[in-house]
Every structure is written in structure tokens, then in C-alpha cells.
Design brief:
The chain is built from 31 helices and no strands. It has 733 residues and is mostly helical. Among the domains are: 180 residues, Leucine-rich Repeat Variant; 54 residues, no CATH class; 130 residues. Helix 4 packs parallel to helix 6, helix 7 runs parallel beside helix 9 and helix 19 packs antiparallel against helix 20. The chain is elongated and about 180 Å long. The chain starts with a helix and ends with a helix. 19% of the residues are buried.
């Protein structure tokens, strides 16, 4: 005992004494600062470290404690203290320029200053520290930003497990991040499957070098290949080689086609020359035909004059017969001239294929009559025009048939392209069967693939039953994991709806029986808090029945909160009146201090009896009320300090007062001021009645403190008072 008296109180073996001594050290005195630093840095008791650190104002030493990763308690306490100093504008951001990421993380976990978070969060790069901020930061915005920046799977998983139970916003961010990663993997697998198919199509295309649309199909494959991600195509080095090989083949085909075009141009020029010669020949024949017709007419007239002449020779008769025969052809042609001219005037563009074929048959039948036109007599211009018209009609029909064949080939290529795309959709749907996805994501991707299939059906009616059966079967298999999930979700929503209905029923019943003129405000506030928590718990529900139920719940909550707001406003007004009264008491004359403290005590009792107000308003009013009380007690204390012998006697009196308060015993009149000051400091804790175990623990603590301080020898009268109180409890020395 004697040795302990010689040891400074801040180095006393008893942790409680060191705590008390640390609380009295002045952080503005260098000698006291050094003591606080020794306690904060080396004291084995965490409570002593806490008090010492919370009283330190030395920024550099606090930063040293903050950066100690091997001593998390000191680091956390230093972060709390630095946060307070930053709020008091004793710490600026430039001081933290060289601070490590661990220390900054500790500081952000303890601080609630948004400006500090915005300035320091970008400096945190380590994934485990970002994960810690996502779980432990005091600001929701910082937790969400830290979660967004997570990349390592282990950190993401730890944050996901924590946030699932504690932070729904962060949990949604992590879930969206994992969803994006799964979606990217699915897209990569689908792109790889498409790349394999494009490579197979290119091989097939090179195996058909005589295909008429080789260049178009190659360009189409290249465009599809370029649309694939570079991370997929760079693994297939064979495609560029095959593509170059196809380009060389196309160049050979183009060279051959150019040679054939030159030959056709030469043939066309020869044909034009022949047509020019033919036209010249036709003109000559037409002139000769007209002369022969006049000669035949003259011979016919002569034949009529000499027909009865019996002296005609046989040769003359034969010549006459030839003239008559030629004249008969001319007469026949003259009779058919109108029908032949009508056939020449019909245009092929006005006819469909069937009518065009019928017209060609008619013209061929008309020309068949003149197939045996005399070889020594030029054909008339009318027959030649009709022959050319027939050739044009036949060319037009052949051109139409060629266009129809080309259109059929294009449609066949489109058919091939649609089938290839549908095969890709089948592969994508089959890939979903083995991919582990959340049911909602799986259902969304299945619907997307089905919509793509429908879009292909609308663009081109290409129906392949085997492909559709394959796609439909894969879709059913891929959807099987979703079916049970959605049934469970439906049952869960129905259950949640019934629970919400019960919540509304209980609230309505409670409100109907509640005396709104004099309700139990504490019970009402607790019921509202419990109802809101239970309401959020039973979610989600179906939209249609859930919406009117939500409106009903909102109206019930609004009814109660309106009454609570009115009650809080009345309490705030009453407490403001007490604050004003306390301010008047704090300004009283020196000879009225005793009376003022008694009145302030009554105000304290009135304050306890009043209900709580809005939190920030309650804190503001309480700080103002306590400030006035502190001023009054400080004046009274200063007045009494003039008569007090030492601070030790005050401490001894304070222990006696605490024991008297614990045992509900009155204090002497001379200690009333000190007792009220202590009660003022403990007002918030005194609002709740301590349990029996807590009373016994505090009683033992007071007895030990009295014994350790050695007040018995220094203050015999106070010791008798203290021992008398202990005798009432049965715990004497």
C-alpha cells in the first residue's frame, strides 16, 4: 500500500486508477501529452489505452498509432480520435498525404464525414481493404463505391456473404457484378461456337470453287467474323489463311470471267456486222420482191390474154405456172397481212409467262405456212419482221426464265443463311443447359433466344422441323431449373402477402382500441418500428394484390406517425421551455446559486418525465440544457472550491455521493451541489433503472476505489460516513 502511494497515479498497477488519472491529464501540457502517449502506446489495459488515445491531440502520434496493422485496437481508437479532430477542423487532408492505405481504411471506417470519404476513398487500391470498406464503412455511399471497385473473386465472395445479411444495396451491386461476369462468359462461349461454325462454312465454301456467289458468301462470312470479339478470333489463325486462299480463287475466277466477256464482245460485234449485212440484204430482197410482184401481175394479164392460145410451148407453160405460183404466194401473204401485222404490234412486257408462250406459239404457227417460200424469191419485209419479232419474244422468255433461276438461287442462299442462324440459336440454347446461371438470368436468355428465332421466321418463312424440334427440346431442358424456382417464388409471394395482410389487420385492431388522447408513446413507436421491419421482411409480393395492401399499410403508418410527430413537437416545445428556464437560472446572482441548483434539479426531473423528440432536435435541446446546467454548476463549484481543502477530499466526497445515490440515501446539505453536478453528468445513463447485478458490481467497484485511494486515513469523518453506508449493504472492510 505504501509503495503504491509513491507511484504516479497514471502508472498505478490498478487499471481503474490509471483510467481515472488518464482522464485528468491535460492534452495541452507537453508533460501530460508524453504521459498520454506512454499510456496509449504501452499500457496493457485496453480501457486505459482508449481513454489516453481519445484525449490525445498530437496529430503525428495519432497517425503513428493509426498505421499499426499489428495492433488493430490502437489503430481503430486512433482513427476515431482523428475523425473527431477532423470534425473540429484540427486536421487537414494535407497531413494525410503520406498515410498508408491501411490507415486510411481505418479512418474511413470510423469517420462519417462525406468530404473526407470523397477525398480519401480514391487512394485505396488494395482489394482486401476495399472489401473491408464495403462491409464496415459508416457511410453507405463509400460501401457502394468500394463494392463497385472490387475485382478479386475472394474479396467479392466475402463481401457478398456479408452484404446478403447486412447491406442490401451492396449486395445488389455485388450480384450485378457477378451477373455481368457470367454473361460475359456465356457470350464468349457463344462467340467461340460461332467461330467454329464460320470456319466450317469457309472450308465448305473452298470445296465449291465453281459456286456462282463465291465472293458474296466470302464477304458475308468475313463480316460475321469481324463482328466476333477479338479475344475469340485471335485464337483461330486458320481463318485468315483460308480467307486469303479464297481471295486468290476469286481473282482466278474474275480473270476467267474477263476473258469470256472479251470473247462475247467479239461475238456481239460480229453479230452486229452480220445484222447490218442482213438488213442490207433484206432491203435488196424487198426491192426485188416488189419487181417480181409487178412482173407476176403483168404475166398474169398476159396469161389471160394468151391462155386460150394453143400454140404455147411447154416451156412457156411451165414459166407461166411458176409465175402463177409466185403470184399465189403473194396473194396468200396479202390475205394474212392484217393478222401478221397484229402479231408484230404485241409487246412482251405486257404479257405474263403463260401469255408470252402462247403468243410465241401463234407466231410460229403463222410462220409455218411460209416455210416453203421459193428459194429463188426473196422473202418480203413483213415475213422478215415477223421472224425477228419471234426471235425477240423467245429471247425475252429465255431472259425471264434465267432471272427466275437466279432468284431461286438467291432464295436458296437465303434459306441456307437462315438455317445456319437457326443452328447457331440451337447451339446457344443447348449451351444454356450446362451453364450454371441464376434462374431469372437463365429465363431472360431463353426468352431472348426464342425472340431471335421468331424474328428469323418473320423475315423468311424457312421451316425445318428437325431444327425446330431440336431448339424446342433444348429450350425445355434449359428451362427446367427455372420452373421449380418460379413456383417457389410464387408460393413465397403468396405467403408474404398473407403475412402483410396480418400485419395490417393487427395494426388496424391496435389503432382501433388505442386511446389516441393518452397513448403509450414508447409502445406505439416500438410497434411502428417492428411493423416496418416485418413489412420489409415479407417481400416481395404479387403486384396486383400487393399494391392496395401497400396503400393501406402506408395510410396506417401515416396515421400513427402524424400523431407521433405532433407528440414530439409538443415535447420539443416543452423542453425548449425548460432550456429557456435553465438559461435564466445560469445567469442568477451569486447569492441565489443554491436556490437555482434546486430549481435546476426540479427541471431535470421534469425533463425525465417528458417524452423524446426527434433525434437531432433532442440532442440539440439536451446539449443546450446541459450547457446551462454546467455553467450553473461551474459557478457553484467555483464558489465551493474556495472552501474545499484539497481535490482529494472532493474525490472522497464524490465516492460517498455515488454510494448514497446507489443506495437511494440523501447526501448532506454541503454536498448537494456536488451530487447534482454528478447527476447532471450521468443523466442520460440514469434514464434507465440499473439491474440488481449492475448495482452490486458498482457497489464493489466503489468499495475497491475507496480502499485503493486511502481515504480512510486522510478523512476520518468521510470514512465513517462511507463505512456507515456499507454497513447497510452488509459489505464492510
Amino acid at each position: 500500500m505504501f509503495v503504491n502511494l509513491l507511484i504516479p497515479r497514471w502508472r498505478h498497477p490498478n487499471a481503474a486508477i490509471r483510467c481515472h488519472a488518464a482522464a485528468k491529464l491535460n492534452p495541452h501540457k507537453p508533460a501530460h501529452v508524453e504521459k498520454l502517449w506512454q499510456l496509449a502506446n504501452h499500457d496493457p489495459a485496453p480501457e486505459v489505452q482508449r481513454i489516453a488515445i481519445t484525449r490525445l491531440n498530437d496529430i503525428h502520434r495519432l497517425l503513428e498509432l493509426l498505421q499499426r496493422e499489428d495492433r488493430p485496437l490502437q489503430s481503430e481508437l486512433a482513427a476515431m480520435r482523428l475523425s473527431e479532430l477532423y470534425e473540429q477542423q484540427h486536421l487537414n487532408l494535407n497531413t494525410l498525404a503520406d498515410t498508408g492505405q491501411f490507415a486510411l481504411t481505418q479512418l474511413l471506417c470510423q469517420s462519417q464525414n462525406s468530404l473526407l470519404h470523397e477525398s480519401l476513398l480514391p487512394r485505396i487500391q488494395q482489394q482486401p481493404l476495399l472489401a473491408k470498406l464495403a462491409m464496415q464503412s459508416s457511410l453507405a455511399a463509400t460501401r457502394q463505391q468500394a463494392a463497385i471497385r472490387l475485382e478479386e473473386d475472394s474479396c467479392i465472395e466475402s463481401v457478398r456473404q456479408y452484404a446478403k445479411e447486412h447491406d442490401k444495396a451492396v449486395y445488389r451491386i455485388i450480384r450485378e457484378h457477378l451477373k455481368r461476369k457470367q454473361q460475359l462468359e456465356t457470350e464468349r462461349q457463344l462467340a467461340a461456337s460461332q467461330a467454329e461454325q464460320f470456319l466450317q462454312q469457309l472450308h465448305s465454301l473452298l470445296n465449291q470453287p465453281e459456286h456462282p456467289h463465291l465472293a458474296a458468301r466470302l464477304e458475308h462470312l468475313r463480316q460475321q467474323w469481324q463482328q466476333l470479339p477479338h479475344t475469340v478470333t485471335q485464337a483461330y489463325t486458320e481463318f485468315p489463311k483460308l480467307s486469303d486462299k479464297a481471295d486468290a480463287l476469286i481473282l482466278q475466277q474474275q480473270a476467267a470471267a474477263a476473258h469470256e466477256a472479251q470473247q462475247r464482245a467479239a461475238q456481239a460485234a460480229l453479230t452486229a456486222q452480220l445484222n447490218a449485212l442482213d438488213q442490207q440484204l433484206q432491203h435488196s430482197l424487198q426491192s426485188l420482191s416488189s419487181t417480181s410482184t409487178q412482173a407476176l401481175q403483168q404475166l398474169s394479164d398476159a396469161f389471160e390474154r394468151i391462155a386460150a392460145d394453143t400454140l404455147l410451148t411447154t416451156e412457156q407453160k411451165q414459166c407461166l405456172e411458176q409465175l402463177q405460183q409466185r403470184l399465189s404466194w403473194c396473194q396468200t401473204l396479202s390475205e394474212d397481212a392484217d393478222a401478221l401485222t397484229t402479231s408484230l404490234q404485241v409487246s412482251a412486257e405486257e404479257l405474263d409467262d403463260t401469255a408470252l408462250q402462247s403468243l410465241i406459239g401463234t407466231v410460229q404457227q403463222q410462220l409455218s405456212t411460209y416455210y416453203h417460200w421459193p428459194t429463188d424469191t426473196p422473202r418480203p419485209e413483213l415475213l422478215l419482221n415477223l421472224q425477228r419479232h419471234l426471235e425477240q419474244l423467245q429471247q425475252q422468255l429465255q431472259h425471264r426464265q434465267q432471272q427466275a433461276a437466279e432468284q431461286a438461287e438467291i432464295e436458296q442462299w437465303q434459306h441456307f443463311s437462315i438455317i445456319a442462324q437457326k443452328e447457331q440459336l440451337c447451339v446457344a440454347m443447348e449451351t444454356l443447359i450446362d451453364i450454371d446461371l441464376p434462374p431469372s438470368d437463365r429465363a431472360q436468355q431463353i426468352r431472348s433466344l426464342q425472340q431471335q428465332w421468331k424474328a428469323l421466321d418473320h423475315s423468311n418463312q424457312v421451316s425445318v422441323k428437325s431444327l425446330w424440334d431440336r431448339f424446342h427440346q433444348a429450350a425445355q431442358q434449359a428451362y427446367e431449373p427455372c420452373d421449380q424456382y418460379f413456383r417457389e417464388q410464387s408460393r413465397l409471394r403468396a405467403w408474404n402477402l398473407t403475412q402483410r395482410e396480418q400485419i395490417c389487420t393487427h395494426l388496424q385492431s391496435y389503432f382501433d382500441t388505442l386511446d389516441w388522447q393518452q397513448p403509450d408513446w414508447h409502445a406505439l413507436e416500438a410497434i411502428l418500428k417492428k411493423a416496418k421491419m416485418e413489412w420489409r421482411r415479407y417481400a416481395p409480393v404479387d403486384r396486383a394484390p400487393g399494391k392496395p395492401l401497400q396503400l393501406h399499410f402506408n395510410s396506417l403508418i401515416q396515421q400513427a406517425e402524424t400523431a407521433l410527430d405532433a407528440h414530439r413537437a409538443a415535447c420539443a416545445e416543452a423542453k425548449q421551455s425548460l432550456v429557456d428556464h435553465a438559461a435564466q437560472l445560469a445567469e442568477c446572482d451569486a447569492d441565489e446559486l443554491q436556490s437555482a441548483t434546486q430549481q435546476l434539479k426540479q427541471l431535470q426531473q421534469q425533463w425525465k418525465q417528458l417524452g423524446a423528440t426527434e433525434h437531432s432536435r433532442e440532442r440539440q435541446l439536451w446539449q443546450a440544457f446541459r450547457g446551462h446546467g454546467d455553467r450553473l454548476f461551474a459557478r457553484l463549484r467555483a464558489q465551493q472550491d474556495a472552501t474545499d481543502s484539497t481535490s482529494s477530499e472532493t474525490d472522497a466526497r464524490l465516492l460517498c455521493i455515488r454510494l448514497e445515490i446507489l443506495l437511494h440515501q440523501p447526501s448532506p446539505e454541503t454536498d448537494q451541489c456536488l451530487r447534482m453536478e454528478y447527476q447532471m453528468q450521468r443523466l442520460e445513463a440514469a434514464l434507465e433503472t440499473p439491474t440488481t447485478d449492475q448495482q452490486l458490481s458498482e457497489l464493489e467497484q466503489l468499495r475497491q476505489m475507496w480502499k485503493q485511494q486511502g481515504f480512510a486515513e486522510s478523512f476520518p469523518e468521510l470514512d465513517q460516513r462511507f463505512q456507515r453506508l456499507l454497513q447497510q449493504t452488509g459489505k464492510t472492510e
